[in-house]
Amino acid sequence: MTPGRLLLAAASFLSLGLGLGLGIRLARFDPATLPAAAAAPPPVPAPGPDFSGIARRATPAVVNISATQVYRTQRSPFFSDPFFQEFFGRDTPFRMPQEERKTSLGSGVLVGSDGLIVTNNHVIEHARQIAITTSDRKRHRGTLLGTDPVTDVAVLRIDGRDYPALPWGDSSKAAVGEYVLAIGNPFQLNQTVTMGIISATGRSNVGVVDYEDFIQTDAAINPGNSGGALVDTRGELIGINTAIYSETGGYQGIGFAVPSNLARKVVEQLVARGHVTRGFVGITRVSDVTEENRSQLGLREAAGVVILELLRNSPADRAGVEPGDVVVAVDGRDLQDAAQLRNELASVEVGHELRLTVIREGRKREIRVAVEEARPNA
User: Fold this and answer.
1) Rounded to whole angstroms, how far apart are CA atoms 182 and 233?
2) Quick check: is 352 in a domain?
């Protein structure tokens, strides 16, 4: 036996001898007698967006807009005379042209440190004077650079430099359920911030403007918020607050914003040229494919857009598009409804060759249409 093993054996024997001689019973190791191990702490949830930080950075870029609007009307000098009203009602004679002045209050967003501001067209429409108050409470005179009524976008500028500007975001990445902040000046309450989520994207047929591709949100938007900022959790501008759905005139949980990608294109053209140049293909009337007309069109499913009318000798006509064609895709992007096709045609650039995938007499084909510049009233 080696010395090492002897030592261990002797120690074991000594322990046994001590136990027997002293009448001590050695306890056996029982794991059950140990105290239970402490439960593992629950995982720490990931921190949410820092809304106060986002608001602190974004709010200074939102301005208050006060526009004095002048409307020409015809009104009789006897309008308020009870005698004439009794006989003529509101149709009193001797009407004379008059000017009525109204003040429109709204919001705007600084998108350039050089004083470039984007807002809604309806905020400054018919305005003779535009006053802009920045977050430091300084009042400036606004210069109108251009408007685009069909998207309800307008661009202003104020003198000065080094203004706090909001960076443009990519509205195509806006997802339903994403948190957003709406910043504006509702009811003359400056620098108001509300929070909500994106309720829907690509909203159309709202009846606000000709080209609608709205972001819908439940962030509270009220009168005076028009032209304000819709900001994502990255602190970027993804929309210009434009309209609310309301039966009372106040907030009812549904607001709409012009997506930043559309607004940015309009702003760039208004700054460069003072007007927006749009593509023209000559398709004038379209309609959704429905379950009722699907079988008549020889389609397996109710998807796509029916061409009802197009102008003669227009790019679409020359390319071979015909009334009755069903457009199912534009440049490889599937179409769901007529509003989507109108928005696609509105955003296409002059000189681009548009690829329309159509179904005619049950057969799919591709037609390439050269986009021309839209003529006035086209």
Assistant:
1) 11
2) yes
Q: For 217-220, which contacts have Cβ atoms below 8 Å and span 24 or more sequence positions? A: 217/180, 217/182, 217/255, 217/256, 217/257, 218/253, 218/254, 218/255, 219/180, 219/181, 219/182, 219/194, 219/195, 219/255, 220/182, 220/186, 220/194, 220/196, 220/251, 220/255
Are 315 and 271 in the same domain? Answer: no
Return the H-helix or E-strand segment holding 132: strand 127-133
pLDDT band at 11 (very low <50, low <70, confident <90, very high): very low
Residue 39 is assigned to a structural domain of this protein: no
Residues 267 and 293 occupy one common structural domain: no
User: 172 exposed, middle or buried (CB, 10 Å; 0-12, 13-18, 19+)?
Assistant: exposed
Q: Are residues 202 and 348 in the same domain?
A: no
CA–CA separation, 357 and 248 (whole Å): 44
Boundary of a domain, candidates 225, 252, 276: 276
Are both 365 and 258 inside the same structural domain? no
| Residues annotated as catalytic (active site), given as ranges | 122, 152, 226
Count of Cβ atoms closer than 10 Å to residue 304 Cβ: 24
Model pLDDT for residues 57-69, shown as the tens digit of each residue: 999 999 999 988 7
If DSSP states are collapsed to H, E and C, what string results for 6-35?
A: HHHHHHHHHHHHHHHHHCCCCCCCCHHHCC
Tell which of 225, 257, 276 closes a domain: 276
Q: Does 59 share its domain with 170? A: yes
Distances (CA, A) of 324 to 38, 271, 300, 304: 73, 40, 16, 12
Q: Could you report the per-residue pLDDT of 226-251, keeping only the tens digit for each? A: 999 999 999 999 999 998 877 777 77
> How big is the chain, counted in residues?
378
Q: Within a domain: residue 30?
A: no
176-190 pLDDT, tens per residue?
Answer: 999 999 999 988 788
Q: What digits encode the pLDDT tens for the residues 125-143?
A: 888 899 999 999 999 999 9
SS3 assignment, position 262: helix
Among 135, 136, 153, 166, residue whose Cα is nearest residue 144: 153
**Structural domain span for residue 285:** 279-373
Say how far apart CA 334 and CA 326 lie, in whole Å.
12
Entry pTM: 0.72
Compute the distance between CA of residue 53 and CA of residue 310 in angstroms, rounded to an integer.
Answer: 52
